[in-house]
Amino acid sequence: MCAPGKPNKAVADKIINSVAHKTRRYRTLYLIFNEYFKGKKCRVFLAPFDVHFKKKDLAEPDVMQPDLLVACDLENNVTEKGKYMGTPTLVVEILADSTRSKDMIDKLNTYRLAGVKEYWMIDQKQAKIMVYGFDHYEIDQYQIYQKGDAAQSLVFKGLSVEDAALFDALL
Description:
Blueprint: H1 9-37, E1 43-46, E2 51-53, E3 62-64, E4 68-71, E5 90-94, H2 100-114, E6 118-123, E7 128-135, E8 138-146, E9 150-152, E10 160-162, H3 163-170
Parallel strand pairs: 5-6
Antiparallel strand pairs: 1-4, 2-3, 4-5, 6-7, 7-8, 9-10
């Protein structure tokens, strides 16, 4: 039992370890993507980074924090306060048990309806990467990569992630 106003050390340690583990997972992916985009127009951002997704035919945007995103439309889409108001070209989510359904259903639909071109879902549980390509707000193509494959971007020629190395870093 904790004293009033004092944090529970076991809970605090669990939260810190969870955040550290997440950060390590995202960092590995960030480094791979950042190397590819070095010297190019597009920039890679890691969560936490608010994005206002303006969906087709809906007035109110959804505000989300993708695990990783690639923005190629920074010019004229960053406010004076530094808020990004554009549409990312590519979004990546690393599925977690607590957000699995939301990432696989809700976010896929939000990203599709907002004009995102490509969405990667990294499923650690099943050791798969699902890559969706959107065209005119519809799923145009998709590819599922197993552990041992090299996941390929549908939009950025030459951008690939070796699944085995990624999954080893994620676990």
